[in-house]
Structure formats: structure tokens, C-alpha cells
Write a structure and sequence with these properties.
Radius of gyration: 22 Å
CATH architecture of the largest domain: Alpha-Beta Barrel
Helix content: 25-40%
Largest sheet: 9 strands, mixed
Number of strands: 18
CATH topology of the largest domain: TIM Barrel
Number of domains: 2
CATH superfamily of the largest domain: Metal-dependent hydrolases
Length: 472
């Protein structure tokens, strides 16, 4: 019988240590991935893939780790450029002068585009190929323009859908008169805008998606919660909302509702596999079962959890929930004080601090499969398997952080968790090569971000914080 002729594809990545994140979590120490168009068409031992496929271009990974792109399941991307202005816990408000909410309220489209572009370049270098913007960008089109220019996948929602803000007294830095004026807490406004970004899902081959989101954290009426979840169900998308960021606010929600939060949410019928709740820093004993049985996805933002000293009041239960079978993803929240790639390492450390050490493999599940579920894109991304989109990261082989290369899972989560990407593909397109973005000029991205910060700070009349004097 004649041998079958090799099939044609566009690209093969060969000679890589391939972490597939498939159902068996197979690792191919000498593996290859074949890509045709937007999709992965083959994954396996290098010899087998190279025998079955012929490509116009072959990339030699030189033994580097090859893995599915990570997904940042919660990123307020327009906050990327306020680094240096709001130290510490910005949710508690500024001692004097404009607050973090005031900064956000003054952002214009060009500022959000500059912030998003800066964030996207940073994410690629950290192996993040997709993120979820939770409904805090005032001009989603500006964010979409930046993500498409750099080549990063994202999901967008409408800005600040809230209709009750009375309980936000415990986090005054996140609400100001200027922000309330720009995005009024009004039910009619919210119902009109709800689902306004779902049109992005019409392009089945695109990298910009849409979902349904409410700001949450006690700012949504029962009517708005039900409307949002019902729309998400009808459209087959996720419903995303903050819950459990602030312990005092969580307790105020319980007092208002007369029961635990998840008892009330279950009563409303807004729990489900497409329900994504972010932070989840407080989980009562009687809330564990409804979370598990409903299939709700939890997004843990470990830097926000640690930087607000939440651990001193309430130890996170998300490592426990992960072990019990809940889907848990990881998010940066705001990169105001951290890097886009810190969430996995911080989760690794903080889980041990609360007495439940997670294996590096479990952290990688959160960054890939968990993140894909949290984005509502698990049929497309999160693993390297035939039929899924080619969102692929090749790490460097020339950085000490990634040596000696004995345990790739541990290496990715521990010392090598930083800006160690060499080559990145999103949707089958090479968007980073040699650690540099291929579609945009990184220097120009930096210049635009700096110009934006200068404009915003000038409008607010604020200067960078710091203990040391700055010479003229």
C-alpha cells in the first residue's frame, strides 16, 4: 500500500517541548504543532507531525517550551497607564486630590487605545494571548482597535452597567462624582446598552469577541441581574460580574438581601456554567455547594487579594474550590501595580500561604483551560489540539530563568513566569518574534502611552507619587 502523501499547512513549529493541555494533559518532550489558516491541524511527536505535514514555513523551537497562550480572565485594560499615580489600595480613595475613579472618568478614546496597546505588548511577552475586559472601557472600539493592531485576542463588554451604588461606601476610591456623571447608575441606561458588544461575535474567525457584563459588587438590582443573565443565556455568551472584592461590601450585600449572596443569586436564577464571578474573596460554608453544583466560574485576582491585605481578614478559598472541582481562572485585575504575567506565580505562592499548596500543573490549568472557560471561548482556545485556534507561545531558550529545562510546568510557573516569550501566534498569525511585536512599533506604542499619561495627569493636575524629591 502506497504511503499517504503529506498534507499541506502554513506553519509547523518543530523541536519543542509541547504542553498540550488536552484532556490527558499530554506533554511531547520532542513535539511539533502544525497550523493551517487560523487553526491547529496537528499536535504530536515531531517525527509523526513532520512525516504527515509539509509547511511553507517551519520554526525550530530549539527545545523551548511550547504552550497554549495564557488567558488573562480579568483585566481593566484602560488602567495600564496610571502606573505611578495610585500606590497601595486605590479602592480606599486618595488622601487628597483626584482618586483612581477620577482618573478613569477623564479617559478619552485615544487614552484607552494607548493603554490597551501598551498592555497587549506586555501580555504577549508574558505569554498571554487573550484577555477579558470586564466592562470598564468607555470606548470599546478604541480598545478593539489597539488589540487588533497588536494582534491580541480579547472579549469586550459595555462600560459600567450599574443601577445601585449605595453600598460602595466601603470602596470610595472606585466611585466619584465625575465617574457617576460619566456613567450614571441608571437602570434604563443599562438595559438599553446591555449586550451592545455582542455584534463582535458575528466574525467567527476574528480575535475580538463580546460578552455580557455588569459591574457588580452590589451595584446591580435584581432586575438588572436577571436581565443580564437572561440575555447571556439567549445569546450563548458569558455573564461576567465582580463579586467578593471587598469583604465589608460583601457583608453589606448579605445584610441587604437578608441571606448569603449565593443563596440570593441562586434564588434569582443567575447562577450557571456561563456565569463568571470575579474575585470571590469571601465564600461562606453554605455557598460552596451552589457554586459547585451550578458550574459558576471563579476568577481569582491574587495581586488584588494580597495588596488589599484581604488575607488578614479572610483566607481565599479558591485553591480549595479548585480542588473540589470548580473551574478557577486567574486575572491581573489592574496592572496598576503589577505585571501582566504575575497572576500565576502569585497564586502559586498565596495558595501555600493559606495552607493548600497547588501544583504548578494546577496553576497552568487556571491560566489556560480555566481562562478559556472564563472568557466563554473554551471551544476555541486554552489547549493545543486539532480544531482549536492557533494561539501558541514559544518560550525563549536563551534565558536563565527557563533553565535547566527539566520540569517545564514548574519552570513556567516559578522562575520563568515573566517576560520570557520568544515567539507568539494568535489566530495563526505570528504577532511576536524574538521577543518583539511584529505588527506594531513598540517604541511608538511606548511614546503614545507616555503622551496619554501626560495629557490625563495634566487634566487632573496630579503628579506621580513617591517618597523622594525629584530634582528639576
Amino acid at each position: 500500500m502506497a504511503e499517504r502523501a503529506p498534507e499541506s499547512c502554513d506553519l509547523i513549529i518543530r523541536n519543542g517541548c509541547v504542553l498540550t493541555m488536552n484532556a490527558q494533559r499530554t506533554i511531547y518532550p520532542s513535539g511539533a504543532v502544525a497550523v493551517r489558516g487560523h487553526d491547529i491541524v496537528a499536535v504530536g511527536p515531531e517525527a509523526k507531525v513532520m512525516a504527515a505535514w509539509r509547511a511553507a514555513r517551519v520554526i525550530d523551537a530549539e527545545g523551548a517550551i511550547v504552550h497554549p497562550g495564557f488567558i488573562d480572565a480579568h483585566l481593566h485594560v484602560n488602567a495600564q497607564t496610571c502606573r505611578g499615580y495610585f500606590r497601595g489600595d486605590a479602592s480606599k480613595g486618595a488622601a487628597k486630590g483626584p482618586s483612581y475613579a477620577d482618573w478613569k472618568a477623564t479617559l478619552e478614546g485615544e487614552d484607552e487605545q494607548a493603554a490597551a496597546a501598551l498592555a497587549c505588548v506586555e501580555m504577549l511577552r508574558h505569554g498571554i494571548t487573550a484577555f477579558v475586559e470586564p466592562g470598564s472601557a468607555f470606548e470599546p472600539d478604541a480598545v478593539a482597535a489597539a488589540t487588533q493592531a497588536v494582534g491580541v485576542r480579547c472579549s469586550l463588554a459595555d462600560a459600567y452597567l450599574w443601577d445601585e451604588t449605595e453600598l460602595m461606601t466601603s470602596i470610595p476610591g472606585l466611585l466619584s462624582p465625575s465617574l457617576a456623571k460619566r456613567v450614571p447608575p441608571d437602570r434604563a441606561r443599562c438595559l438599553k446598552l446591555l449586550g451592545g458588544q455582542l455584534h463582535r461575535n458575528r466574525d467567527k474567525d476574528g480575535i475580538t469577541h463580546g460578552h455580557v457584563a455588569l459591574y457588580g459588587e452590589g451595584t446591580a438590582s435584581d432586575e438588572l441581574l436577571v436581565a443580564a443573565k437572561s440575555l447571556a443565556d439567549r445569546e450563548g455568551v458569558i455573564f461576567n460580574s465582580h463579586i467578593g472584592y471587598d469583604i465589608d461590601l460583601a457583608q453589606a450585600m448579605e445584610k441587604r438581601w437578608g441571606m448569603t449572596r449565593f443563596a440570593h443569586l441562586a434564588k434569582l436564577g443567575v447562577l450557571g456554567r456561563n456565569t463568571i464571578f470575579v474575585h470571590m474573596n469571601l465564600i461562606r460554608d453554605d455557598e460552596v455547594e451552589p457554586i459547585l453544583s451550578s458550574g459558576v466560574v471563579s476568577v481569582w485576582c491574587p495581586f488584588a487579594y494580597a495588596s488589599r491585605a484581604t488575607v488578614l481578614r479572610q483566607s481565599t478559598r479558591l485553591p480549595e474550590m479548585k480542588r473540589k472541582g470548580a473551574t478557577v481562572a486567574l486575572g491581573t485585575d489592574s496592572a496598576r501595580q503589577s505585571s501582566a504575567g504575575d497572576a500565576g506565580f502569585l497564586a502559586f505562592v498565596l495558595a501555600a500561604e493559606v495552607g493548600l499548596t497547588l501544583a504548578p500543573e494546577e496553576i497552568l490549568e487556571m491560566l489556560t483551560l480555566g481562562g478559556a472557560r472564563a472568557a466563554g471561548l473554551d471551544s476555541l482556545i486554552g489547549s493545543l489540539e486539532p480544531g482549536k485556534r492557533a494561539d501558541i507561545v514559544i518560550r525563549s531558550v536563551r534565558l536563565a530563568e527557563l533553565g535547566p529545562g527539566v520540569d517545564p510546568a514548574h519552570q513556567l510557573v516559578s522562575a520563568g513566569h515573566g517576560a520570557t516569550s520568544d515567539t507568539v501566534l494568535v489566530n495563526g498569525r505570528i504577532v511576536m518574534r524574538g521577543g518583539r511585536p511584529t505588527l506594531v512599533d513598540e517604541g511608538a506604542v511606548m511614546e503614545e502611552a507616555h503622551a496619554s499619561v501626560t495629557r490625563v495627569a495634566g487634566r487632573l493636575g496630579i503628579k506621580p507619587t513617591g517618597l523622594w524629591p525629584r530634582a528639576a
